[in-house]
Amino acid sequence: MTIAKPGPQASPLSQPFWDGCRERRLRLQYCPDSGQWVFYPRALDPRSWSTHLEWRDASGRGTVASFIVVHKPGHPAFQEDTPYVVALIDLAEGPRMLSNVVGCAPEQVRIGQAVRVHWVEQGGEVLPKFVPEEFAHKEKD
């Protein structure tokens, strides 16, 4: 018996992010008042308190800030994927995103490693995961 993996639950605030993912575009909020990128989706910029936020395409590039290797997942549907990497990615635009690093063995992931977005279809959704730049030539977006 296969157990379905739980997926993201979009809200009206996060819907543009998930719509961008379906188009394989990493869309983040940008505040022209502060000149800063914002992630996770919010109603206002946490730096300037401005509600003037625009959705813009991000580069999809970043670096691994921290990571863990999961051997015992919190949900049984992810057991078949173990071991897998959950990482904090410092995006080139500034925000930090929680995601997975894929396309290499967990022991090949390093803090400070350059990564780029890699789109993965899961349960009818398209999720942004990241692949190390040195392994990116083996992956296709």
UniProtKB/TrEMBL annotation:
InterPro entries: ChsH2_C (IPR002878), ChsH2_Znr (IPR022002), NA-bd_OB-fold (IPR012340), Thioester_dehydratase-like (IPR052513). Residues 18-44 form the ChsH2 rubredoxin-like zinc ribbon domain. It comes from the Bacteria. Residues 55-120 form the ChsH2 C-terminal OB-fold domain. This is OB-fold domain-containing protein. The lineage of its organism: Bacteria, Pseudomonadati, Pseudomonadota, Gammaproteobacteria, Oceanospirillales.
